[in-house]
Amino acid sequence: RDAFARAFGTRYFQFSRLTYFDPVRQIIIDPMHCIFLGIVKTQWLDAWIKDPPALRKRTEINAREIDQIHDYLKTMEMPSWVARLPNQVGYPAGGNLTADEWKGMLLVFCPLILPHIWAEWYPIAAADHEKAKINWKKKETARINRIANGTDTATDRKGPPPEPKPIRMFENDPDLLLKFASCCKILLAGTNHPTLVKPNFHYVTHIFQNIRDFGPVYGFWTFLFERLNKLLKSYDTNNHGDGELEVTFFREFHRDANLREVVRPYLMDLNRLLIWFGSAPKTRKKGCGGRADSGGAVHR
């Protein structure tokens, strides 16, 4: 299996033995998991929230980028079908976002908010990064001079000081996000975070073939199941664990299925009766207030 993975860049599975099986063409890419819970989540958490954070949390004195995002969110009014982001998004108190919320972040909130955030905070980030590089260069120059003068210390002999961290905000991140909202392939071709691109992200470039094969993404993504999972998770279980809730759901389903089986024959008979009445010949003559029998006589 390891040799197969090294040779072909993918893991071996039993379907690979089928000569007609194309793992790229015949594996359906779920846009919800791959795009919203994959690329968007990675971009937000790994590229913008984690160290070095492009979107920083507040200090004891000053508000920062995330707090400004919260201020923008408070002023935005959205229709009910657009998922609202948590008030503390970006903080641990904001919790984990659902796929609907990641979708809203990508398609609605971030394209509107991030350009303003970058316009205000990117010059500060660039200045801080330049200052860090200058300070590092000064320390390294001083270390080299001490070594040349013979006044170096054990720390100097260990090597240069740690280099400054990469700039925390890339200048064209908002532009790339807007392109990503329009077409994922553009982002993957020009991402500024190549170390964060995961193998399954490449599958997004094949989603256009899936659309040609299976129709619009609304027909094969798993939002329906995830929304149902969210509904089930919202139920109050009253501390009934160990499968009690699942058993209750199954009993209710079984009871409903049995009821349907009992009623089904009567519904079928009723349906046949309605069809018979609808197709029966009309016996009432126009303009006559009576009923005609088979002999043509009219009874008042």
Protein topology:
Layout: H1 2-8, H2 31-49, H3 65-75, H4 99-149, H5 154-157, H6 173-182, H7 184-190, H8 207-214, H9 223-233, H10 244-279, E1 291-292, E2 298-299
Antiparallel strand pairs: 1-2
Helix pairs in contact: 2-4, 3-4, 4-6, 6-7
Structure characterization notes:
This protein is mainly alpha-helical. The chain has 2 domains: 30-233, no CATH class; 238-272. Helices cover 55% and strands 1% of the residues. The chain has helices at residues 2-8, 31-49, 65-75, 99-149, 154-157, 173-182, 184-190, 207-214, 223-233, 244-279, and strands at residues 291-292, 298-299. The chain has a two-stranded antiparallel ribbon with strand order 1-2. Strand 1 (291-292) and strand 2 form a beta hairpin. Helix 3 runs antiparallel to helix 4. The chain is elongated. Residues 184-192 and 283-300 have low confidence and may be disordered.
Given as residue ranges, the uncertain stretches (5+ residues, pLDDT < 50) are 184-192, 283-300
Sheet-strand content, in percent, reads: under 5%
Our measurement of the CA-to-CA distance between the termini, rounded to an integer number of angstroms, reads 91 Å
- Summing up helix and strand content along with how strands pair, one would put the structural category as mainly alpha
Rg calc: 33 Å
Strand order of the largest sheet: 1-2
Series of H and E elements = HHHHHHHHHHEE
**DSSP helix count?**
10
Shape: elongated
What's the number of domains?
Answer: 2
Largest sheet: 2 strands, antiparallel
In total, how many beta strands?
2
Chain-averaged pLDDT: 77
Helix content estimate: 40-55%
